[in-house]
Amino acid sequence: MSKKTLKLGLFGFGCVGQGLYSVLNQTKGIRASVEKICIKHPEKSRSIDAHYFTTMADDILDNPEIDVVVELIDDADAAYYIVKKALMNRKAVVTANKKMLAEHLPELYALQQEYQTPLLYEASSCASIPIIRNLEEYYDNDLLSAISGIFNGSTNYILSQMWDNGKEYSDALKEAQEKGFAESDPLLDVGGFDPKYKLCITILHAFGLFVKPENVFNYGIQNLNKQDVTYAQQHGKKIKLLASAQKYGNKVTGFVIPAFVEADNPLINVHNEFNGIILQGAFANSQFFLGKGAGSSPTGSAVLSDISALTYDYRYEYKKIAQNSDLEFSQDQLLEVYVRFVDRNDLNLSDFDNISQRFESAAYSYVIGEINLDKLNNLPWTKNPNVSLIVNKILSTVKEEFATPGHKELEYVV
Ligand code: HSE
Fold first, then answer.
1. Which domain holds residue 261?
2. What is the 101 CA–ligand 1 centroid distance (Å)?
3. Verdict on whether the full-model pTM lies above 0.90
4. Does residue 108 share a domain with residue 165?
5. Dist. CA 155 → ligand 1 center (Å)
6. What atom in ligand 1 is closest to the CA of residue 195?
7. Which of 123, 127, 168, 371 falls between 20 and 30 A from 154, CA-CA?
């Protein structure tokens, strides 16, 4: 297959843009050159020659010389405009913008079909881990029953630093920002929104299902404290921010919530800005992917791989959309959770289906009980900063005969 030389127009020259520029220059064999870079702040001093830069989006979008638009800005609304116009102008697009993608996947899928133009976004989900390409190509026939793991580098960095180095939450967050892992608005990371966007994207490629981010419950790491860490240590577990999607029959459930992971779970050894993904398939059973999930070069390397793929006309086929047309998203999933609270009135114990443990002290209390995921959305205590919610186990509510083959053998879900 002959490879063509691509002319690139970049949007954004921040952490990821500079990472891409650097990896592109260090890589031999990729036939692509940066022609123009659209930036928002022309007054900033730049590491490369001024002739590359413009502040006018149409210098790229309407430029017939440019074949590929590489969108690497962090404003999701502006990114949506850029990606949409580029596809309509039949320019292939590479983007890392998970929020923009998750919010507009059905339309972006339709635009790709209508204009017969590819949109690639490997860097959007777990940065350097090639999960989307694997889901598209390698797992196109296996019956996947679950995709779960650590989908956010900043929060994993914060939790690792608090755990291993005894750092305070605020210091660890500051470091994650300084190292270029965190979003401009770090609430997207610590509140569990960023991993939720990535979960929506990977659900599409794992199961062929479009899921709106607002339908997925997310709970961040902001309320975790030393008492939770002590509980985990006493039980030989660690706390990780877990993104999880499970398929039961024709339903797919999903959430992002901190979870206790046990010593035999590979996620326990995923440290700092690394991400880890566990796939559960009927035939291959359990598989684990590890790689850096944030940072300039790891993200740049995934963008570069997409650019390289465009040189041989690669595009996502989204085969699972047709294979799984009867699937629907559901929040009907029973979880065993640990809930730590201060004031007895913070919590309503009748919200739990079953309570297996209760601990009370003057300083803090906790319960371990079963609760349905769809209930969590509407419970006021999930918004209370004095309450901490951690998943202990994912419990299936689905009868055996509806379960996906292989689902009984889930090994590492939490
Ligand atoms: N803020 C994101 C993270 C960057 O920490 O994972 C990579 O998507």
1. 140-291+329-402
2. 14
3. yes
4. no
5. 9
6. 6
7. 371
